[in-house]
Write a structure and sequence with these properties.
about 475 residues; five-stranded parallel β-sheet; 10 strands; alpha/beta
Length: about 475
Amino acid sequence: MAQEKLLKFDARQAISTSGIAAADLEKIWKQLVAIRHEILTTEIEQYESGNAAADKRPLDAGFIHLPDRLLKEYDEQRATSELGRILDASRRMSEQVDRVVVLGIGGSYMGARALMDACAEPFFNERSRADRGGRPRLYFAGNNVDNDRTQGLLELLRNGAGEGRAIDDQWGLVVISKSGGTLETAVAFRQFYQALRESLNDPSELPRRIIPVTGNEGKLAKLADEIGCTDRFVVPDGVGGRFSVLSAVGLVPAAMLGLDIVSLLRGAWMMNSHFEHAEPGANPVLDYVAVNHLLETKFGLDIRVLSVWNDSLESCGLWYDQLLSESLGKQHLGATPLTTVNTRDLHSRAQQHQQGKHNKVFNNLVVDSWRYDPAIVGEIPWNHDQLDIFSQLSLPTIMDAAIEGTNQALREDGRPTTMMTLPAANENGLGQLFQMLMLATVVEGRLMGVNPYGQPGVEKYKLNMNQILNSTIETGVANVN
């Protein structure tokens, strides 16, 4: 196996532009090294023993060593390991159906969506079954209560692909919810379950067409028992939803797409090792936290823009938006995340970002290598666009110029920027990125004195919504139009 490259983080421009003092960096690095030691020793021990202090509950630190555990188990047990079972279940589903709907909300789908967009072939669902390697098209639902989108997907599934082969009309479900009690996903499961049941000539097929990913106990676990699902996987205890992308929550949909989930976990394992051993100044996790936190607390830059320079990474940014918001947005603290896609958003947000309110730091996310060979600008019979001078340049060359030019413009207006460089937008690179950002979020939470686990604010909206719906039923004014 070729040696995989490590993700790089470079904050030199942010430091020089903002004027972060060397003494401030040295001070915060010492704090972060102590926090790293606390997380990797005391907190892991407390998590494993279940004896966390009251002020650290929940202590959902299980995500940290999850990649290491899954890889070790796969190496030792292969087919009977969790990864082996996931690969086997995804193969069986792929042989039966041409479409799979993944039901889930928040952390139960955002990581899987990010993996599909970044690692699967572009326009995956539009390709023929042969070009998809016999893998099913993947759709995401249960993350909203949008009537028209739900009905549109159900109609698409009922109509089938229309290519004249029996498998093209067949579909299945992956339903992801630790408790099974989240209303959006639970409602969607009822709707898609009934549609799937009606689509089958043989009802005995139903247990093989539904793969639940849920807790050992709970509403969805009970439903899976009633249905008799052939394959089911567990969301590990001590792994919260937004930290669950490298568990079965993300691995089952990724395997369904034919992605290399072993390489994904290996990327996370690599980042774990680097986080544990690398010194500040050469440690992406500690350096990312140090610079972003200093910019927020000393200079008031409390909007954290993740500028992705690859369309396929937009969903990674949206995944990170949830991770940062729910983890650190507590006690009137926490930076506000914002994902932009460039060069697209340079023609919408850039003016405000560059010369508007000075409250932002720009973390650029770029890739070192592209999936396809470089596309050349090329020639046409006319030169009205005056691009003949660029005709031999490639899109990657133009993108590099856009990145450099944008960072230069931001620097000239005193706006700090950093660079996160992925070796490639592939499984190993995404594994590194996911683990880096999850670790950084936990480290920064401990630095702030905020518990990065749990989301009490989100629970309030759920409670309020259920009370309103119960009141609606009691007064007999439910809208059924």
